[in-house]
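Page 47, continued from p. 46.
Same chain as before, 241 aa.
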Amino acid sequence: SGQMLLPAPNFASYNGLLFISMDPAAEPLEDFLGDFRFYLDFYTKQSAGGLEVRGPQRWRIKANWKIGAENFAGDMYHTPHTHASIVDIGLFREPKAQKRKDGATYWAHRGGGTTYKLPAGNFEERMRYVGYPDEMIGRIKEAWTPQQQRVVGEDGSMISAATCFPNLSFVHNWPKVHASGRTEVSPFISIRLWQPISANETEVCSWFAVDSAAPPQYKRDSYKAYLMCFGSTGMFEQDDA
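Result:
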């Protein structure tokens, strides 16, 4: 009894994500995020209804927090090596996954990340390729700006992992989650914090995120995809840890 939380001098939200700064002179959140907001919308703005989340799962790893944050920001080459067993079992259908992760890295003010290169097609065809149903594609087109739509529809790129400085990361991927022989994929989004415990230990807080307006079956498949890949039970996570 008698204990109180310290008041936060600066509190703001962006697409439902809550940000706190203990610096009373900190710049406004949108100025801090800068051009990274363009990419942050891909993870957090798929309809007017916003995200719903599950979690967090929490676990600790024997590593400095910067290792995970930097890995998510642009280490594209580790995928076919660190995650060789996942490539071998065919969790992803990308034809060149065994050799490399085709795509590009980007850096935008307070954040950076990686993309995958998609097969030829227009915006709708490429969104279907990574597993989005038509009813979600329509809402996504309403939520994303024409410039954001062009990243997928004209450039043929799809966001994957990213980090917003200093320790907030995101994952978007689309593994195969159904029984053998089925080729459909299910996209998922994960949000995480790399919380420093010491110089050599980090607490990972991982949330599953999905658009609140998504169909019930999509939500179930997306959650299954997340659990298969990331979180304390995920195959990717075990390799990375």
